[in-house]
Structures are given as C-alpha cells and as structure tokens.
Fold this protein.
Amino acid sequence: MNIILHPVTLITVILILFIGYLKKTAKAPKMVRGNFISDYQFPPMLNDKLIEKYPHLRQAQADEIIEGLRTYFQICNVAQDESENLAMPSQAVDSAWHEFILHTKLYDQFCEQAFGRFLHHSPAEGMLSQTEAQLVLKMTFKHACRLFDISRKRPDKLPPIFALDTRLNIPQGFNYSLKCLHENDGSFCLSHIGCMSNYKADGKGGFIKKRAS
C-alpha cells in the first residue's frame, strides 16, 4: 500500500529529521573530546607539585585532586561557549591547573584536543561584582550536578569537586554548604544560589562573609 504524505507533512518530517541530524553531529565532537579528557594521562609531576604544596596529602589524595581537574575540564567541555563564564570551585584543583599551565607545550596540546582551542585561566579578580561571582558559580554548580547525576534544584550531596577542599583540609580552601543554615562556619551556601547575599568575592577565587552593617 502506497502512503502519500501531504507536502506540509513531508516538509515537517524532513525538518524534524534534519534537526535531529544537526543535534547528533553537534554532540559528536563534544563526545570525542570528552572521551579524550576521560582517558588523558596527566603528567606525574602534577602530583609531585601538589604534595610539595600540601605536605599533609597522601599520594591517593593528590590523585583525587587530579581527578578534580579532570572533572573541571569535563565541565568546560560540556559547557562549550559558557566555559569562559565558569568558576573554579576548588583551591586545590586550581593549584593543579596552574601547575599544568606552566608546562606550556603539553598544556597547549591538551587544550587543542580537549577543547579545540586554548582554555585560558581567568583570574578571580576579573569578576567585578558579587552578581557576576554568583552567576559563574551557579553555572559551574549546574554542570557539575549534571555530570554526577545530582539534582541541581534539590541536591542531596555536593558534587565531588565542590566537596574536595573541605574533605582534604586544604589551607585557604573553598568550603561549601548545601543549606543556608550555618551562619558562622565559613561555608558558602549553595542550596539557593540566590541566598548568597551575605557573601562577596574575596579577590582570590573564593568568597568571604560580609560584615554586619
């Protein structure tokens, strides 16, 4: 039995198939780059430098920080054009990133395959306002939750990269809380990113509590 489609219906079907094809091809490079990041072997000297900077760390803990760096790069990959508007949620991971950048040729080669471009490190001083700080942290938290299958609206735990500094007792590390209930523990509240009005960027990539007026 022959089926004759109305011209409008036929055009609609073609458009749906074409849009599906575009979405599939758009995801392909992201998937390839994501696989590259997942399989990438970071240079051993990054671990050595981390233990040198944080002598209390064991080798396995330094490895966790390197995995945190891998996570951050995965977030940058899935965020694509938003990657310049992401916050680094871990002081320890930021240290690993800094050390990786110092190996310029290696880092440049990694970026080319991981992102198709050079991923610049934007200093925290570039965030000119508290609002901007909130937005970039919110963007990072959203992608981190998605990566680890955590509900962004009702998270029951922190993404590992957000919990890393606290768990490893990193000096001057970034500490986060899921609930806005602790007013004096120095944590940065994440339960409703908008309830961060009691905090401001500290100019070093972290956040500090405002003084009561």
